[in-house]
Design brief:
By secondary structure, the chain is α/β, with parallel strands linked by helices. It contains twelve helices and 13 strands. The protein has a five-stranded parallel sheet. Strands 6-7-8-9 form a four-stranded parallel sheet. Helix 4 runs parallel beside helix 6. It is globular, with a radius of gyration of 18 Å.
């Protein structure tokens, strides 16, 4: 669906991460996704993060989510991107991923660095920054972006706690270090807030490059670095006092929405990695309710 200018109208999308990541354990079985998709359909979501299970073709995936009234939305390619990877193997993995996303009809995908041990142990602080490692990761990221572009997919940087591109300064350095023709910005509001940044300010600074967004809220409990001393990323997440359903935490979404580009044509993707309540259905329902009230009613999404 496009508006009168031909711009695609942003949709509301959802990431099923709270279904397949439970108590730190990953289960991406078909049964788990079926349960998530059934809940999304019941609540009223129409777009979902496009994660094609191993062994399933893109056309099979489209039929599968389509049976629940869902269509694919922007997905994520993650890698440490540091000296621990085999860059040749990682670029091939990126090629396969991007080709599948293009087959789904998507023209963009997020790229993120994750799971750097020292940063997982001291989350949101830009721990053990090394310029040589950052430069290597930036080089690897640029190579991934080139592979994406060859497959017809535009990369957008997704900041993430525990990765090399964690702080606002690091996000800014990526935007300065790689051409806008190769990479845009796909911010995560919760991860920016937890890393000490103002999400709206980061978005406004790079508003001409924003191509996707994860709508994530955060409680104040672990925002003060003193409060999270000795607390790892995963321990904070497991406490259920880290991530909040949108509107229940401290992210200023009015400012975030105001900072978004007027011609934004990506989606707004709800993401609550670890719900603040035990009922996953209620978590995604509350998130949808907030989106209808705060995004749809204001004409931000269709």
């Amino acid at each position: 669906m496009s508006d009168t200018t031909g711009r695609r109208t942003p949709r509301l999308a959802v990431n099923p991460i709270s279904y397949w990541l439970v108590n730190g354990k990953v289960d991406k079985s078909k049964a788990v996704f079926d349960a998530a998709f059934a809940d999304f359909q019941r609540i009223g979501y129409t777009a979902v993060k496009a994660d094609i299970p191993d062994g399933m073709s893109a056309s099979e995936y489209l039929d599968w989510i389509g049976s629940y009234g869902l269509s694919p939305s922007v997905s994520l390619f993650s890698s440490p991107l540091d000296e621990t990877i085999d860059i040749g193997a990682e670029l091939e993995r990126a090629r396969v991923f991007a080709a599948a996303q293009a087959t789904l009809g998507l023209d963009r995908a997020m790229v993120s660095s994750m799971l750097i041990k020292a940063r997982v142990a001291a989350p949101g602080t830009g721990a053990v920054f090394r310029q040589d490692r950052f430069d290597l990761c930036l080089h690897h990221l640029g190579q991934v972006c080139e592979v994406f572009a060859h497959e017809g997919v535009h990369a957008v940087l997704h900041n993430h706690i525990g990765g090399v591109f964690e702080t606002a300064d690091e996000v800014d350095a990526v935007m300065a270090g790689i051409s806008s023709s190769l990479i845009g910005l796909g911010p995560d509001t919760g991860h920016l807030q937890w890393a000490g940044a103002d999400p709206a300010e980061v978005i406004a600074r790079h508003r001409d490059r924003v191509g996707a967004i994860h709508v994530k809220d955060v409680f104040p409990d672990y925002l003060d670095p003193v409060a999270r001393e000795g607390v790892s990323y995963f321990a904070a997440q497991a406490s259920k006092r880290l991530w909040a359903e949108p509107g229940y935490g401290v992210v200023d979404f009015d400012a975030v929405i105001a900072a978004m580009p007027d011609d934004y044509d990506g989606d707004y993707m709800i993401e609550v990695d670890e719900p603040s309540i035990d009922d996953r259905f209620e978590s995604v329902r509350r998130s949808h309710e907030w989106a209808v009230r705060s995004l749809h009613a204001r004409g931000v999404i269709r």
